[in-house]
Design a protein that fits this description.
This protein has about 80 residues and is an alpha+beta fold. Helix content is about 45%, strand content about 10%. A two-stranded parallel sheet has the order 1-2.
Length: about 80
């Protein structure tokens, strides 16, 4: 089965989060996290680094919330108002 470019980008993004986030949280133990969900990757934001759709962003960000939750770090999530074309 051939994967689409979106699927490949999402897989690489999640893989990078899984590789880097535990080390960051191991070095820096935040008291809380203010998380701006999807602001850098959404197709609806100005000049996105990636052009992911909302369901794809939520899949990737689930790992972030799991990692913070497992360390009992409270998270406030800001959600960018996404205007889809």
């Amino acid at each position: 089965m051939e994967r689409t470019l979106d699927q490949i980008v999402l897989a690489v993004r999640v893989q990078a989060l899984r590789k880097e986030l535990p080390g960051v949280l191991g070095e820096f133990w935040p008291e809380a996290c203010l998380y701006a969900a999807g602001m850098d990757v959404s197709s609806g934001t100005p000049n996105p680094l990636l052009r992911l759709r909302v369901p794809d962003i939520e899949k990737g960000e689930a790992f972030v919330f799991e990692a913070l939750s497992s360390r009992q770090v409270p998270v406030a999530r800001l959600r960018w108002r996404i205007c889809q074309p």
